[in-house]
């Protein structure tokens, strides 16, 4: 059983990689700093390590999907990230793609399970 | 908190200069945030810091995440050819040095220990050099491949017509043929540099080598050595072209013919040049007690020796014509089928 668990872990990790990006983009219509984002996502059941999220934020910024500003008014300076115009556009499209994927996959799996009940198809 | 500084340093020293400042500030903020959440207003202890840092994980991995793409000195695409070239070069060097060592022992068995030490020393000096140069060449390739690679891959749409032809067994060049030739050429190069003085007629005295009567003029040899190395390098280039192509094509045929013609021209210039052959060859043969002046044998050998230049040229041109015909037949054969 532990081997199955190992495979599960690996596959889940692969799946998660892309979904984290969607999760991050979804939360950044308002500016947020890295750690508040980590807390928020984890609270909502999207598990992400700061060591993954921080580099991801920088990458998305480099690609032009996010914009950042340093806020130096608080006790310590924090870097706030927010969707750029293009980032917002990309998120809308990505969100639709994701829904399509979930629908298709659910449909596909339902079909198969239904088929099992009625004998082979 | 010294530990935090050390952690941030360990991450940022692996990053490029331009990112360091920003990332180190961001990381410091992150670590403080994590500590604050954990402590809920209390003062953080050394132990808490350690826990937070181990949650963040190995700084090496974090730095890799920040860098994004993996960097290679020699990437996966070049790795296989790199290993192949390295093997060919190392085998050639070991073979060449072993041959030289063997010749030295035959000639002068008494000094075997000295020669053996030379042999070992030459390994220590030449092998790292060879490894270094091969690696350097491939690092260079990798670097420029990365620079161009991005544009090429993005712009060029692949279409099925780009697919390479299936190898035709009649036109195919088996890999071991050019590889063997390359090893052979490198051995010849090493011998041309290190032991040209053994290229001649070996005179034995009671089963031991007494002298070698050289074919070449030792006084002028150093100048000609460059030409000889040039010819052998041309040979290596030709074999590499065969290896890369993997089959006989019209272009490869023209290219090898071109190299062959240049080789023959260079050899012609060389052997017919002044003082290429040993001018004292006949006298030295007599001195080595191999001939007596005025005998029939002396006459015959002198006749042969004097036409050496002509013979060499005839052999070379014969070889050239043979080569061209053989390659041409292979190209034609492929076309008919």
Automatic annotation (TrEMBL), chain A:
Pfam families tied to this protein: PadR
Domain Transcription regulator PadR N-terminal: 25-91
Protein name in UniProt: Lineage-specific thermal regulator protein
Superkingdom of source: Bacteria
Membrane spanning stretches: none
InterPro entries in alphabetical order: Metal_resp_DNA-bind_regulator (IPR052509), Tscrpt_reg_PadR_N (IPR005149), WH-like_DNA-bd_sf (IPR036388), WH_DNA-bd_sf (IPR036390)
